Amino acid sequence: METFRTKLGQVERALLDAEVFCGHGYLSAHDEAVALLLGASGLSPDQDQSLLDAPFPPEAATQLDIWVAERCVSRKPTAYILGEAYLGGYRFLCDERALIPRSPIAHLILEELSPWWSADCGPGTIVEVCCGGGNLGIVAAQVFQHSRVWLADLDASALSLARDNVALHKLAGRVGCYRGDLLSAIAPESVDLIIANPPYVSVAEMEDLPPEYRHEPAMALVSEEDGTQLARQLLQQAATALRPDGLMVLEVGETMWEMEARFPKVPFLWLDLPQGGSGIAAMRAQELRDWSAAGIL
Question: Which of 113, 133, 166, 193 could form a Cys-Cys staple with 117, CB 3.0–4.6 A?
Answer without folding.
Answer: 113
